[in-house]
Design goal:
- There is one protein chain.
- This protein is α+β, with helices and mostly antiparallel strands and 411 residues long.
- It folds into two domains: 117 residues, Alpha Horseshoe (Serine Threonine Protein Phosphatase 5, Tetratricopeptide repeat); 280 residues, Outer membrane protein transport protein (OMPP1/FadL/TodX) (Porin), CATH 2.40.160.60.
- The strands form two sheets. The chain has a 14-stranded antiparallel barrel.
- β14 and β15 form a beta hairpin.
- The longest helix has 16 residues.
- It starts with 8 loop residues before the first helix and ends with a strand.
- The model has no long low-confidence stretch (mean pLDDT 88).
Length: 411
């Protein structure tokens, strides 16, 4: 008979750890299998199984194991860092960024914090990726039609026809973002952004696309980006406008838990059928995210813009802000809530309505992701929202609420 050796749990865990360090993976796996049979659900045995998968470069299996451990306890810092690293090595950069940023919400030794910054910097500057979100659901007002029943035009009241008022519809919204890094140290970049909204008929269909080429520059914990390229939009299957943009961006940590980004964007929009709307736009934007804990964070986004057209009644100044809260809930769901408010002030009275247009837009958005139900990198997404625009010109008042189910990789 083969000799047997009795090991305590601690001795077995220590032996597996030693074999993993020494690269004796077959022996480590054999002992781990016995541990998992004897002690099902043991945290340290599961963690070492994840380390074994990492050592064998089975990053998908490692990520699955680490995610399950985090579901049990989202404060497990080492597990979160190893999950982020496994996702990075697997090329799932959006998810890796998510967990590296979460890790900043816990106490980190300075060396570990700088390592996290380095990974975030590499994700920002050196990686190539593709991100897709698709949602299907009902929308009470997909064309942002007026909520008013009557309007005054040149001092005369008019009743709006049913065609000009809000119509409910169920449609598909898709958001695709891609980035390709190239050149020395992957400092060159090509980026694409595509937004599609499709509803029955064409009355509310909207397509927007832009593509840019640029480069990154890294100075310590600071990343600078410059890019430029064409853009265009279709509305109701017809060209709405074409143009181009130039954008300068910057990201950096401000405090151990606070990350900041800023951008300056200049656009030229040429409306083919509405020359009077052709404009030069300038936008200055900034975003802050503060990690409250390993499972929660808050964010603040602010932007200011200027739209200049040939006719001053269509030129405006804009201020836009949003406050967000995100959390990993105990029952394997990720929650993201955002409340936004924007003001648009136009330069001169409208010729048609005889008054200056001022808009106030309130937005509420809710997203819930079932993070443990992912398949091939995609997880189920539930999204809902409400928007209300109040304008000094009643024709431009509208209300909108929507609900959708889909898939995403943003977790």
């Amino acid at each position: 008979m083969a000799p047997t050796v009795q090991l305590s749990r601690e001795e077995a865990i220590g032996l597996v750890t030693r074999w993993l360090v020494e690269g004796r993976l077959a022996e480590a796996e054999a002992l781990l299998q016995q541990l998992e049979q004897t002690l099902p659900g043991d945290y340290e045995a599961a963690f070492l199984s994840g380390q074994l998968a990492l050592a064998r470069k089975d990053y998908s299996a490692a990520a699955t194991i680490f995610r399950r451990l985090l579901t049990r306890d989202p404060t497990l810092l080492r597990v979160r860092l190893d999950l982020a690293r496994a996702l990075f090595l697997a090329g799932d950069y959006d998810a890796a960024r998510y967990h590296f940023e979460r890790a900043l919400g816990q106490h980190l030794p300075e060396t570990a914090r700088q390592t996290v910054y380095l990974y975030l910097q590499r994700i920002e500057t050196e990686t190539s990726w593709l991100s897709v979100t698709v949602v299907v659901g009902p929308d009470s007002n997909p064309s942002y039609a007026s909520s008013a029943e009557t309007v005054d035009i040149l001092g005369q009241p008019f009743v709006l026809s049913s065609e000009a008022q809000a119509r409910k519809a169920t449609g598909v919204t898709a958001l695709v973002q891609a980035r390709h890094s190239f050149g020395a140290e992957n400092r060159g970049l090509a980026r694409a952004y595509l937004e599609l909204r499709e509803f029955p008929g064409t009355y509310a269909d909207y397509h927007y696309a832009q593509a840019t080429v640029g480069a990154n520059s890294v100075r310590g914990n600071h990343v600078w980006t410059a890019e430029a390229g064409p853009l265009g939009a279709l509305y109701q299957d017809a060209t709405l406008y074409v143009g181009g943009l130039i954008q300068l961006g910057h990201t950096s940590p401000v405090t151990p838990r606070l990350l900041a980004s800023q951008s300056l964007t200049v656009k030229r929009l040429e409306y083919r059928d509405y020359d009077y709307l052709s404009a030069d736009e300038t936008w200055l934007a900034g975003q802050l995210r503060y990690a409250l804990s390993a499972a929660t964070g808050v964010s603040l986004a602010l932007s200011a813009g200027r739209n200049d057209t040939a006719q001053s009644e269509y030129s405006y100044d804009a201020l836009d802000g949003a406050i967000g809260f995100d959390a990993e809930l105990a029952r394997r769901f990720n929650l993201d809530v955002r409340v936004g408010y924007a003001r648009y002030r136009y330069d001169s009275p409208s010729t048609l309505f005889g008054q200056v247009r001022n808009d106030r837009l309130l937005r509420l958005d809710l997203n819930v992701v079932a993070r443990d139900w992912a398949m091939r990198g995609f997880a189920p997404l539930l999204t809902a929202g409400y928007a209300r625009n109040d304008s000094t010109i009643s024709l431009l008042d509208y209300r909108r609420h929507y609900f959708g189910l889909g898939v995403t990789r943003s977790f």
